[in-house]
Input
Amino acid sequence: MRETPALPRNVAPRAVLLALALAGAPGVGAAVEPAADERWAIHGQSTLVEQETSDFHAPYRGPNSLSPQQGRETFDATLYLGARLWAGAEGWLSPEVDQGFGLDNTLGLAGFPSGEAYKVGRKRPYLRLPRLLLRQTLGLGGDERPLEPGLFQLGGSQRADRVVVTVGKFSVGDIFDSNQYAHDPRADFMNWAAVDAGVFDYAADAWGYTVGASVEWYQGRWTLRGGVFDLSNVPNSEHLEPAGHEFQMILELEHRHELAGRPGRLLLTGFDSRGRMGLLDEAVSVAAASGGAPDAAAVRRYRSRMGGHLSLEQELAGELGFFARAGGAGGNVEAYEFTDIDRSLAAGLSLRGSRWQRADDRVGLAAIVSDLSAARRRYLDAGGLGILVGDGRLPHAGSERIIESYYAARIPGGAFVTLDYQFVTNPAYNRDRGPLSVFGARLHAEF
Output
């Protein structure tokens, strides 16, 4: 049985102090006026998350099972350093300090409950460099629109019709599958399958970042995006495979529209991963002949795994928004980077608090249904392990179903405190385990 290392008692208080220090920094959480041709910028954020599981029925467990009645915390603090290099060009550098563990070392649920929990964890804070990139914008015409400064954006203006090229190290989620209601685990929903499509097995190291290039072409109501990115050297690795030997291609088409006078966006996203991956049924056959548990690593060959999803973002009223994502991915091949989901559907609502005189507050409610292919079910039932799931057997499989709700409240100083609740049935697709609750609290500040 895998044991999650206990955190030293003095780590969480240090994290709280740093988060509160950021919360009290001048200008934190304040509205920022658009700046004309901002030459450089320094922004920062700090996020502390604590999550605990309830007791639940668990007659057996495997190496990747979720544990009842446990609590874990994660903390990160990031600087965003940007500079305008020449006309239309921005350079960004974002060093980050991370610390903590996800529940069971970020294992046990296909829709993992914290997007702030990575697939690696450490007891003490450590320094990383998630982003180092160059972004070039070329205006093609149309209206010139103001561009407000942000954590990852210089203030100024841009043309409605334009081409944007991004090269360097960053997250695929910085460019693709964006959604204003469900895409930021530091500010809105926290579940992995809510902030991104569960089937979107996007290229990334174990922290969620990669090296590559993307091109975005904005024309009227349409945007076409494409990108090529490095995969990990092996699935779910801390190290990327350099020079494009294993890579992923992504294509996304976006259409902006109005429905009953309310703005919305529709995105169609597809990906093709090319790397050394194992066929699940082949791994089961090899294990049956040897009498052991199947291991996808033993049958890895260079092959492809494809997938795609449709995403909707729609304003329903002035303060109420709706989102939905649905898609599928190749279920005969091991998942490579993200999580063990072959089919997914997520939908939810987000409401700002203007109606109760809390304009900066936000409340959200989402439902997530994830499922696996017949091949992945056979692999897990035979004792195989996925990226996040693996109870040692799976005699009674069912779709994993999650309901998430949260309330994010602005507090004095400009920081936000969030209470989050997630109810899970059939954790890791296993009807023999659960149901369970995951209780969460989040403290987030930025400047």
